[in-house]
Design goal:
This protein is mainly α. The chain is built from 13 helices and no strands. The protein has two domains: 71 residues, Endonuclease Iii, domain 2, CATH 1.10.1670; 100 residues, Orthogonal Bundle (Endonuclease III, domain 1), CATH 1.10.340.
Length: 213
């Protein structure tokens, strides 16, 4: 009986280097652009509720605004499920959370998913588990896969900064739709998470601001 294939993870700079070498080998645009980007950040963070909180805070906000809210939540000690559940709406609003995101975070805290169990599940199963939680769509699930679980092939094609970076880098006439970007990224498997990091780096260089937290 054969077991499941080993899960490809990104945990060290050497993992990024392996992915970047793959991208440069499969696409001449990557081969041309990557040397100018410099070392890519790992962007790894501890998994669990705090990681999903960071992703929810980042939804539909600039990185600057999300950083400010995250800093206020940290300062107030409002980063774990018990604290979110016990805090008043006023205290959470004072940190910059919208009423909608307060509902999302309270709902996720109440759902109390088994965060540790997600570490060994395939990407699709993790996504299915996360999108069943309040306020979690595919973008948030894929951000969690990438940064909290270190999965090497998560992508987040709905991310506007990734779409804009792909438009500029590949000289496209318009920003690609999520479906078009997924199709573009197919040859980048199994290193699409590295491709996403590189696209964000390209966006940051071209725009002078971060595209993701």
């Amino acid at each position: 009986m054969t077991g499941m294939p080993a899960m490809r993870l990104i945990g060290e700079p050497s993992d990024l280097e392996e992915g970047l070498a793959f991208l440069a080998a499969v696409d001449p645009v990557w081969a041309r652009v990557l040397p100018g980007l410099g070392p890519l950040p790992l962007r790894r963070r501890e998994d669990g509720f705090s990681a999903i909180l960071n992703a929810v805070v980042s939804q539909q906000l600039s990185t600057h605004a999300a950083d400010a809210i995250g800093a206020r939540l940290d300062a107030a000690g409002l980063t774990d499920p018990a604290a979110i559940a016990a805090a008043s709406d006023e205290a959470l609003r004072a940190c910059g959370l919208s009423a909608q995101k307060i509902r999302y975070l309270r709902g996720i805290a109440a759902a109390a998913p088994d965060w540790a169990a997600l570490r060994t599940l395939p990407d699709d199963d993790v996504t299915q588990t996360l999108v069943a939680l309040p306020g979690i769509g595919r973008w948030t699930a894929e951000i969690y896969l990438k940064f909290a679980l270190g999965r090497a092939d998560a992508f987040a094609a709905g991310d506007l900064a990734l779409q804009e970076a792909a438009r500029m880098m590949f000289d496209l006439p318009a920003r690609p739709t999520p479906a078009a970007l997924i199709a573009m990224a197919e040859p980048w498997r199994p290193w699409r998470s590295v491709a996403a990091r590189a696209l964000w780096a390209y966006y940051g260089t071209a725009k002078g601001r971060e595209g993701v937290r």
